[in-house]
Write a structure and sequence with these properties.
Layout: H1 2-31, E1 34-36, E2 42-44, E3 50-56, H2 61-76, E4 79-85, H3 91-100, E5 126-130, E6 136-141, H4 146-160
Parallel strand pairs: 3-4
Antiparallel strand pairs: 1-2, 3-5, 5-6
Length: about 160
């Protein structure tokens, strides 16, 4: 009799843990949202690398002027670089924009923006710097340069050490 009750208690505890584990998984997914680029590739905020997220628009001259710098940063591979169109564009419109301005880093789908912990900025261009933990550590308004980004990264990486 005792063994049957013990078995029942173990089964009951197992059943009780399923909702708790499900909740833990859901909370973890919410704390590390994923987003999708127009290429179809999915990403998460947390990464082994630092992340740069740049809001831009085609009608914003400083935004277009900084694209070569952002391309170079992305190509160097030391940090992840993502673009977000300030204007709500279809995936095809974003792809056309990327071709027109030779954007060589992933640009996020407009539909992915709802899950991002970054709000639409009031000023363009706006660039967010995120730590590998996915924490926003800096917000830059105006045109960025490679030297400026590298200097900021060095400052933040030294703080983490």
């Amino acid at each position: 009799m005792f063994i049957k009750n013990k078995s029942f208690v173990i089964k009951l505890l197992g059943c009780a843990l399923i909702p708790v584990l499900t909740l833990a998984i859901v909370m973890n997914l919410r704390s590390s949202p994923s987003f999708e680029a127009v290429s179809g590739q999915s990403y998460g905020w947390k990464s082994e690398k630092w992340t740069l997220v740049n809001y831009f628009a085609e009608w914003c001259k400083p935004c277009l002027e900084e694209l070569p710098e952002l391309n170079e940063l992305a190509e160097a591979g030391e940090l992840r670089v993502f673009g977000i169109s300030y204007d709500s564009l279809s995936d095809q419109e974003i792809i056309d924009l990327m071709k027109r301005y030779q954007i060589q880093f992933p640009v996020l789908k407009t539909s992915s923006l709802e899950t991002l912990p970054i709000s639409l900025p009031a000023v363009l261009p706006t660039t967010y710097i995120l730590s590998p933990d996915g924490e926003i550590v800096d917000v830059l308004h105006g045109k960025v340069t490679i030297e400026g980004i590298e200097s900021l990264l060095e400052k933040h990486q030294n703080k983490k050490s």
